[in-house]
Amino acid sequence: MLRGAGGVALGLPLLDAMQPRAARAQTSSAPRRIMFVFQANGDQTKQRFSAAGETDFVLGEFLSPLEPYRNELLFLNRLNKRFYELPEDARSDNHQQGGSSLAPFTSGAGSFPIGGTEDQTIGYVEGPSADYAIGERVIQADPSVAHRHLVYRVGDKSNNIWNLHSHAGPIGEQNPVPPETDPYAAYARLFGSNDPAAQQAVQRQLDKKRSALDLVLGDLGSLEKRVGAADKRKLEQHTQALRDIERTLTGSATGCGTLDLGAKLEVYKDDNHAAVGQLFFKISALAFACDQTRSIQFNWSGNTSNRVYRNLDLSEGHHDISHDSSEESFATVRRIHKHLWTENTKLYDLLKATPDGDGTLWDHTLIVHWNELAQGDSHSIEDSLIVLAGGAHGYFTQGRLIDYQNKTSFSDMLVSCFHYMGFDDVTEFGDARLRLKGAITGITA
After folding, report:
1. Among 191, 256, 361, 363, which has the minimal tally of Cβ within 10 Å of its Cβ?
2. Contact status, residue 75 vs residue 56, Cβ threshold 8 Å
3. H helix intervals, 251-325
4. Which class for 196: exposed (0-12), middle (13-18), buried (19 or more C-beta within 10 A)?
């Protein structure tokens, strides 16, 4: 802003905007936001860092795109997801269970084969994911936020246990959340059109939908009084879904902002995955800036993704490559992850360039990078790497690598996410067998 004013800052008193970013962030009144960013199939655990000191760590080949941002990142290495603590009939294949890591609960009954076999079948996890649960707490505290959470995925539009990462719960119930996979549809749903005549037409449609919802909700209220306990639970879940629709209509963001999405892409074509991902990043930034949501889950693919990265001159699918333990295949896995980390840094730059309150969206957002596996060829769920990025209101002490040696769990890390968002009363999240210590200590400023 000051640069755009042609040097008008000369002679001004010391303003908050002139202070160092960290000093501003800790006193900022801007809302806290969180974005979970997923990429699939594990990496190569021994090649993450070529030196592993807490502050003098050296990033390995595939993490090297993060070097310019290292002082604004916190690397949490070797977290344990602890799935083997669950009974065999309550956990899936590590790809499947790992894809639901944000919902660290047991898997319920279902019809999906474990590990591609027909020997045993399993279903979705029985509980909410962190993106949903955090969003629920947000709207309880501030009902003006239109969307509990937004869920986006790059790639195919099919939905099954292999690629659904968000879950609504409640605890004890299976309730997977299908993501938006078309960025054009996602943008239209959030922001509509910026043409005034079109906005008026949209407003008329919204008014009609609100009237219809009022009638349906009234009927459901009467029906609940006349049914048994099991049916009442189903009706309550359905009513909650309708209330979500009602809230998003009330918080419609028509005219809030505008994006140039460019020439329309074939969104399910592998060759367009990077461009589609960047569109979702732009939509996410605008949704945060317009306070449409404070919790977003973004997935570069489903878990077990077999995308062919032709942009890297590859002809074999990612999942297939990840299960080959040869050095040649590991080199290819590193190339794929280096590519995705490079794309992730474009999100960083976008958030840094978006003004927000007394700083930027980067200053007021926590980005949580995660993967369903630690390493693909061994299906390992120990040695998981989490990268925390973003200014996050100065909440974390960044520029560090912390090795937890599998003595801290992925579930513990999620509790720390709740605490960053201001929900310090959350002391545990997930099944007790998947937890260890509660919120991670030693990572906050």
Report:
1. 256
2. no
3. 273-289, 318-322
4. exposed
User: Taking the mean position of all CA atoms in its chain, how far away is CA 185?
Assistant: 19
Of 387, 391, 285, the closest CA to residue 28 belongs to 391
H/E run at residue 240: helix 229-250
Token match 């570069």: residue? Answer: 300
Angle between helix axes 273-289 and 327-352 (nearest 10 degrees) is 30
pLDDT digits (tens, 9 = 90+) for 33-89: 999 999 999 999 999 999 999 999 999 999 999 999 999 999 999 999 999 999 999
Host H or E run for residue 153: strand 150-153
**Cis amide leading into 68 (omega within 30):** no
Task: Tell the CATH superfamily of the 21-191+267-434 domain.
Answer: Alkaline Phosphatase, subunit A (3.40.720.10)
pLDDT digits (tens, 9 = 90+) for 151-195: 999 998 999 999 999 999 999 999 999 999 999 999 998 987 544
The model's pTM is: 0.84
For the segment 216-253, what is each residue's pLDDT rounded down to a tens digit? 656 656 766 776 766 655 555 555 555 554 544 444 44
**Separation of alpha carbons 171 and 284, rounded Å:** 28
CB of 135 within 8 A of CB of 147?
yes
